[in-house]
Amino acid sequence: MEKNIAVIKGDGIGPEVVSETMKVLDAVGQKYNHQFHYTQILMGGCSIDAYGEPLTDEALAIAKSSDAVLLGSIGGNTSTSPWYKLSPNKRPEAGLLKIRKELGLFANLRPAYLYPELADACPLKEATSAKGFDMIIVRELTGGLYFGERSTKEVNGELVAHDNLIYSESEIRRIAIKAFEIARVRRKKITSVDKANVLDSSRLWRKVVNEVAKDYPDVEVEHMLVDNSAMQLVANPSQFDVVLTENMFGDILSDEASMITGSIGMLSSASLREDKFGLYEPSGGSAPDIAGKNVANPIATILSGAMMLRYSFDLNKEADAIEQAVRDVLKEGYRTVDIYKDGDKKVSTSEMGDLIASRV
Ligand code: NAD
């Protein structure tokens, strides 16, 4: 198989972790006879330095014409970098918002998996973490409260603010279908999270999810209120497989889920549209505090590369091979500094990339 990948190394640790991911993808290509063609484009601070804007139309056109986008991370130190003296629509993050919007990426997938080898980093009680967990949060990314009309006005001598939370049936249906498709290739269980005891938008959400469920009789569906979900995530995370939810609830719950894994450098993320196209990136940021030192953990980005193979290219056994290689390397005791403890074998970013590529 031949695929064109637009590569955005970005800022901070981005270039370091993306290079290791390309190394691992090339090892997969060699073993399974695929060719991945990379076209590098600039986005974020590096694009501001080169072209005066965070994402040029030319770079966007290359991303649009590719089969998938691999992103490191963008941005710098928000207190000291000159990029943050620019107006908000000229800053590094504006590039990210533009590419997500222009590519129509409405579904955000964030797996949260507790590696047994890293269980010490999990802040939950030992009895809870011992059971492990392996879930994926499917968050609607382009509707709801963050995209509704908003205003702040003076009424009767005081300020009154409002934000609209709007969802249409079609917006709910397309994200629900995405979640059911993912559940089908996992443990076939969906927890749909809403606030249907209060919100009309949640009642519509629940109705549409139940309608979509009829086409997936092999997938078990439960509905859970968001406040209970927040509690269940820390009380009994092993009960979750696919968690389907709207934009704001997903924003909050996905951060909570990543926290209980204990290590931001391990967490991948994918943003998808209706077809197979997607943008793949680590959950963390550009980590300017450790950039250029060859110490960042590349695993989050490497696992995002595995998600690209699985969700955009349908290369499931190749994705499995990367995930297994990561588990093997952890089992053998290799750790970058963020997940290192006494007795482990400390390795650099590039050594970790080499190890994973060699285990593929
Ligand atoms: P951050 O995620 O970059 O860093 C938080 C902490 O986690 C830091 O101590 C960092 O060293 C550590 N860390 C993050 N990734 C790591 C890795 N792979 N290996 C080891 N340690 C890692 O968050 P921040 O400091 O709040 O933000 C820094 C910059 O990143 C800001 O400009 C922010 O806007 C940007 N950012 C970008 C994205 C993105 O590109 N999608 C996402 C979040 C933040």
TrEMBL record:
Domain Isopropylmalate dehydrogenase-like: 4-356
UniProt entry tagged with the keyword Cytoplasm: yes
The EC number(s) this enzyme carries: 1.1.1.85
CC annotations in GO: cytosol
InterPro entries registered for this protein in UniProt: IsoCit/isopropylmalate_DH_CS, IsoPropMal-DH-like_dom, Isopropylmalate_DH
Classification via Pfam families: Iso_dh
Binding site for NAD(+): 285-297
Function text: Catalyzes the oxidation of 3-carboxy-2-hydroxy-4-methylpentanoate (3-isopropylmalate) to 3-carboxy-4-methyl-2-oxopentanoate. The product decarboxylates to 4-methyl-2 oxopentanoate.
Top-rank EC class of the record's enzyme: oxidoreductase
Keywords: Amino-acid biosynthesis, Branched-chain amino acid biosynthesis, Cytoplasm, Leucine biosynthesis, Magnesium, Manganese, Metal-binding, NAD, Oxidoreductase
Name of the protein described by the UniProt record: 3-isopropylmalate dehydrogenase
Gene: leuB
Catalytic activity: (2R,3S)-3-isopropylmalate + NAD(+) = 4-methyl-2-oxopentanoate + CO2 + NADH
SMART domains assigned to the protein according to its UniProt record, in alphabetical order: Iso_dh (SM01329)
Domain of life the protein comes from: Bacteria
Localization terms from the record: Cytoplasm
GO molecular function, one term: magnesium ion binding
